[in-house]
Amino acid sequence: MEIKESTSGTSEVLTITGKIDVTTSGQLQDAIIAGINRGGCDFVLDLSGADYISSSGLRVLLIVIKRLKEQGGRLVIAAASGHIREVFDIAGFTPLFPMYPTIDEALAALADTQQKQ
Amino acid sequence: MNGVLDVVLKNDLSEIQRLSVLAETFSGEQALPSSALFDMNLVLEEIISNVIKYAYNDDGAHQIMVRLRVHGDELSIEVEDDGLPFNPLEAPTPDITQPLEERPIGGLGLHLVKKIMDTIQYSRTNGINHLVMRKRISGQ
Question: Is residue A49 part of a domain?
Answer without folding.
Answer: yes
